[in-house]
Each structure stands twice: as structure tokens, then as C-alpha cells.
Amino acid sequence: MNILQALIDATSTGAVYALAALGIGLVFGVMRLANFANGELITGAGYALILLWPVSPPLAIVASIVVAVVLAWCMDAAVFRWLRAQPPATLLIASFGLSILLQRVYDGVFGTNVRSAAVAPGLSASIHVGELRINLVSIVSIALAALLLIAVRLFLTRTRMGLQVQAASEDFRAARILGIRAGSVIALTFAISGVLAAAIAFVMTAQSGSVGPTFGVQVTLFALIGSTIGGLGKLGGSVAGGFLVGFAVSLFTSFLPAWINDFRIAFVYLLVAVVLVIAPNGIFASRTSKERT
Known about the structure:
74% of the residues lie in helices and 4% in strands.
């Protein structure tokens, strides 16, 4: 395989995982919640795209965002709001249970079989530059991820509400003492995670054209792993870690021999284990602690 093409594909995959890691990192920073149920936001948005795209593409895009944001708010109102004072491990277990519950709900509503439709069929085309073949969906995923990452960064650093979210992610108790409204910050954080989930769902449905009850599980799992190795609570670290995990998954898929390619996920976990042995608190958290000492 052309190395440059493999790098482009890996960058596209890494960009999607970086968006997922950003959504997880934002919620963790504010609530100390590693939200495993974030995958069900992606799945809900994916179903909206698959079901409504044949009717109206703009309606499908708007509906996917609304579904993901409202579902995120409902998760908080129904479960997480009542557990805010609990340790992070309790919140993680609750999010895992909520994820399983929503998967069963998707089973009951949509069936266990995947739903298929051509979402953004024009993105299945590719551009040929010599021997290099670049899929349009790869370009779109990279551009969309870059746009959203920049937008979130500008929001967090240039707006009053964004600065409150940043302050809450650094020290939530101190932020509340200083007068920051906890409810508004948490609601906004979940809303942003929903918008990011809808963007991920768009890219993934454009690539696969199908959605099932566990559609968002794998990308969420790897985004959680990426956030952990980057340093949970550090947004830049979460994004970088998510990108690196996605990049590694894609490169392993491209370059591992056929006889061992089925074990590529195991190699990713091995790589993660090595990183965590070297930096147990995450790459960026480790650097921060070294600087302080």
C-alpha cells in the first residue's frame, strides 16, 4: 500500500477518534465522568441520519444533532445528576449500565439487524493523484474534525461561558464557590458532547451506510483509551491521545500481514499498556507532574 495514502487514511481515522475523545474529555473535566454511554449518543444520531437522509439531508443533519444533544441531557437528568457526589468509579459503572440499557432500547425500537441507507453518497467518490487515491470522506472527516476542534477551542478561550467551562474542568468546587452556575456549565458540556457525537455519526454513516445498536461502542471505547493515555482531565491530552489511538488502529489495519491482521486490536491494547506503564497518569499529566517537581 502507498505509504502516503495509508497516512491520510490514518489521519482521517485519528481525527474521528480525536472528536470522540474531546467529547469524553470535556465531560470528564467538569464531572469526573468517563462517559461510556457517549457511544449511544453516536448511535442515536446515526439512526436519525439513516432514517431521515432519504427524506431530506438537511433535516437528517439537524435531527441527528438534536437527538444527540437531547439524549445527552436526558442521560444527565435521569442518571448522572443524582450521582454527582459519587466517586468517578461509580459514575463510570453507571455510564456502562446506561450504555447497555440504551443498546437494548435500540434493539427493541429498531431491531437487532442494521439499518442501511446511502448517507452523503457523493463522499464515496475518490480523487486520484498519480497512484494516490484519496477518498472524499477522508478529506471531509479531517476538515470537519479540524473545524470542530478549532471551534471548541475558540469557544473555550474566547467566550465567557467557555471560560466558565474551562474553570469548572480545572476545579469544579472552586468554580462553584466563585459563582459559576454548575447546572448551566454541565448542561452546556453535555450539549457540546452531543454535537461532537453527531459529527462522528455523520462521518461513520457516510463511510459505512449502516447503523446497528452497537454502532458507537468501538469508537467510544478507543476514545476512552485515548483520553486515558493522553491524560483524562486535560483536553489537549485527550484529543492527542484519541488521535494517536485512531492513527495506530488504521496503520495496523493497513500494514499488518493478513495472517495476523485479525489481532490488530490486541496490538493496540498492547501499545496502550506500554504507554500506561511508562506514564500511569497519562502522557500529558505525567509531563505536568514532572514540571511541578
